[in-house]
Amino acid sequence: VQLQASGGGVVQAGDSLRLSCATSGRRSYAMGWFRQSPGKEREYVAAISWSGGTIDYTDSVKGRFTISRDNAKNTVYLQMNSLKPEDTAVYYCAATHNTWGEAGTTSTPPPLPVEYDYWGQGTLVTVSS
Q1: Other CB atoms within 10 A of residue 85 CB
Q2: How far apart are CA 84 and CA 105, in angstroms?
Q3: Helices in 11-74 by DSSP H: which ranges?
Q4: What does the pLDDT look like over 56-105, one tens digit per residue?
Q5: Are the C-beta atoms of 9 and 125 separated by less than 8 Å?
């Protein structure tokens, strides 16, 4: 499985960006977005179940970021609004075999990078004040 993240750039505080993550193959996976700033560990941002029916966000982006997916296009999106300088990071998309968020499974997404099986190359988002 290959993941290709895109959409990063340099914006000002308050602006918006939409990140995309295209995945290869026909199978749909539960997906997550993570970010990593210099000198910091990779942190969880948002996740979406493979069907798109269950979504989760870290507290710092709730109300500003929206994760979505189009399984027909094998693409997951992260719409980022009201960007802040502290959102500056390399953003990574990741796929997991974990079937969270579906009927009969846990509603809690895996929050740790080690719980994801495939990773994109990252796309840099820089937010200036």
Answers
A1: 11
A2: 34
A3: none
A4: 999 999 999 999 999 999 999 999 999 999 999 999 999 999 999 898 88
A5: yes
Handedness of CA 19, 83, 65, 32 (dihedral sign): positive
Q: Kindly compute the dihedral angle of the four CA atoms of residues 86, 42, 80, 52, in this order, to the nearest 10 degrees.
A: -160
Rounded distance between C-alpha atoms, residue 109 and residue 100, angstroms: 6
Give dist(CA 19, CA 32) in Å, integer. 12
How many other C-beta atoms lie within 10 A of the C-beta of residue 124?
A: 12
For the stretch 29-54, pLDDT in tens is: 999 999 999 999 999 999 999 999 99
- Dihedral sign (CA 102, 104, 108, 111): negative
